[in-house]
């Protein structure tokens, strides 16, 4: 009876919400709001184009000495950490500071970057990629030239004979080198695993011993992490490091590591081991440690190089460790039992740098596709004048711009704090960059046609070389689940009591009723025009980008509701509902992409960079289509499994597995 008494009031409230929505759509909008979100008109664009930029006026963007000192003091000198930007988004929160695109380079660093890029371009132009493909090996002359350029010491401090580049500059160097993917992948393993582990976790003695040799290229490092039965499951490794019976400071390593990057040429291996004893706490994750193992130590057995689909000359090998003795004081990285946390932090740098490599290859593919579209004719028309080709070129450009924006935003976060936390941001950047790069390469291949599949053609080589990058570190599908799981768990700790009550409507009918009313209200709020939430993101960007800022705010609003809906439906079983988690990861990836593009294009437009109008137009288009994609993912989450097709999909897949192959009979078979 209590419920029946409320039904007329609920029906009346729901009708009022839709009436308000209709009235708000036909009502004349507020002039102030329109002015804030109105895109720049053609007249204002012409005016901005005619406005001379700083460099045309002969002016320089001078940095104040106080500003330089403040930035350097804030960078890597204070024990500070960042807001977990893409984690709090799952709960509808947003740190508006992330919309201020990082600008940490001083004038001297900018000059150094341009000089290094010119030298690297000359170096990459001199590399014969076809010779590397044929020989499946990189010549010593190339390594010597890399040593002259100090490429092995990009992030090593100057006191150890390195270049002492920060993350943004290092990513920029990898972007320039990425036109030769094999060499860049080798350098990635050396820099972001070997050198970075010593810089962040190594002792002073270890740094003095290893870093000078690594900077000159006399000592090459790589990581030994993956095993045959534990690819992505890094807790399930079998390589062990046990205490020696005769010396408590000596550990004995036994196990086999698979698919070690540049294992053929490396001198030092960063080996991820399981220590049987627990050293720090009762936590399950304190059983793993890192050790530095030298190539010439007794018991290190290296297999011949393995041929792969792409990245020929990478020097991929298997390495077996049999009773290898290491001293804890000299060869352990960090504290014993700290290996899992070290690996997670290193992955943040690896994924960010790998995304920068994707940007470099993407720009090279755009250059090749543009030249082809300009020169090639088909049906008496140039390819550049055909709509389908223009569409492919547009997608190639906007994908590259987006991955570039995400990459340098993430690297800027790394440089802005001494203890950065970017597990979700770096994972989203790596997923987006590697997936979109492969699509970009396919579009480039379609533009070249049959010529592009000829062995030795640059497009064919890039298509093979970039394919393994999506599986580097952790495969993208696993990363999607991990990022969504981390975000959902951060929300579950906040709304645990709400989820418990909403999943028990018999015991808590009031909570269920309030949830229904709130959901109707929020749906009407989302449909109201103009949409407003609580962050007012348009205040942090250029006024011409007000509409994309509203799209971003709407996306945050949707993610909050979808996350609560997912937890309400699945509860503790959310970890097993991988299809829902994938949708959540796609939504948060769109949000991070929109955030990076908004911040970057706002900065470019505000300071008058070349082609800044082009950037704002791409931001408008991307945010518009991203909102549509987010709506589609949210609708699939709100619907039941049988309506989205999830249940049918899983049922058919299980039937195929029972048949151990394709279960359908050929259409030529007869039953009569």
From TrEMBL:
GO biological process, one term: fatty acid metabolic process
Cofactors required: FAD
Record InterPro entries: ACAD9/ACADV-like_C, Acyl-CoA_Oxase/DH_mid-dom, Acyl-CoA_Oxase/DH_mid-dom_sf, AcylCo_DH-like_C, AcylCo_DH/oxidase_C, AcylCoA_DH/ox_N, AcylCoA_DH/ox_N_sf, AcylCoA_DH/oxidase_NM_dom_sf
Gene Ontology molecular-function annotations: acyl-CoA dehydrogenase activity; flavin adenine dinucleotide binding
Keywords from the named record: FAD, Flavoprotein, Mitochondrion, Oxidoreductase, Transit peptide
Cell location: Mitochondrion
Pfam families: ACAD9-ACADV_C (PF21343), Acyl-CoA_dh_1 (PF00441), Acyl-CoA_dh_M (PF02770), Acyl-CoA_dh_N (PF02771)
Record-given protein name: Acyl-CoA dehydrogenase family member 9, mitochondrial
Annotated organism of origin: Rotaria sordida
